[in-house]
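Input/output pair, single chain:
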Amino acid sequence: MALMPVSDALAAVLAGADPLPEETVSLDNAYHRVLTRDVVARRTQPPQAMSAMDGYAVRAADAATIGSTLAVIGEVAAGRPFAGSVGAGEAVRIFTGGVVPDGADAVVIQEDTVADGKRITIKEAAISGRHIRPAGVDFRKGDVLLRKGSRLTERDLALAAGMNHPHLAVSRRPKIAILATGDELVMPGTTPGHGQIVYSNGYALHALARSEGAETIDLGIAADTLEATTAGIRRARASGADVLITTGGASVGDHDLVQQALRDEAVAMAFWKIAMRPGKPMMHGRLGAMAVIGLPGNPVSSYVCAFLFMVPLIRALSGRAAIHHHRERAVLGRDVGANDQREDYLRARLEQRDDGTLVALPVSHQDSSLLANLAAAQALLVRAPFAPKAEAGSPCEVLRLPV
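Output:
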């Protein structure tokens, strides 16, 4: 099978990735969930004109002259409106959040008055509308303030509450099952034997999937046997996973059994091998409703492929309006060589010059096994297939990595 271009591979992964079914959750459980419907304000905020300051509600015409005196006829606090109205020569003591009484059209802050019993003297002339929040200045009943496909922030939750919505309709979280393969893998905290390495890929993959709003299922590490790999695939399907992510075993060696196990389980393979670096031996297929992504075993390849393919898939299944990574323009911080037929994703650090120019500095060693360089990187510098040699200062494009 020929190497598939990255754009075609991503299109194949996203094909048929419709948003998962809707469910209704409380606001407490809605953080970072994705709306399946527009959210319409059920009320006007504020419902009446409110005072923005502590002071006195007055008629501006009565308090337009410094030295004017007014009779204080009552008091307004938040949640305790004044029952009467403000007439000529009158004022009502008012506190922040209090409803502006009928007849008043301005608030004089308390620092601009001198109180003497039931009368006040004006020290600063009132202006109509000053220190008053008009009814509906925030939003009005019927306004659409949160849109379908939005991923809810903590600020969105406050807005939804203010709109009087205790529950919201969101897409179900995607379930991502992660299966590692390899006799050489041992868990962190274990002393590796001769030829063994400490398992690291899964920790990044679980965290990355969860950061995008998915639930994850840890299927552990399968031994390098067809039976163990097949059993892991079957456990993923039995768990109700929407996506199975495998790591390792995706190459062509005698012990790389993932592809064979997937085919034996009737996975319809869309591709195997992509024209990208790192991550050439990546697979994708479907087993019924479950999407399958076979990631390479090298840590950098595994993470870069998950970032480029798993993340957009999770976003699509979650119903997000924007699913693709945003590319930013930058300039090269050092020379880079000519590229071959594969699209390169170079790990890079970012700097910003005083004039705002973003500078991408590729790390010195790009080997796909180097975790320290991956952890130190802030972005992926994208190099198109057959891109010519480029000198420092040349324009380039980067994808920021999560922080």
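Residues 19 and 317 are 4 Å apart (CA to CA). The chain has a mean pLDDT of 95.
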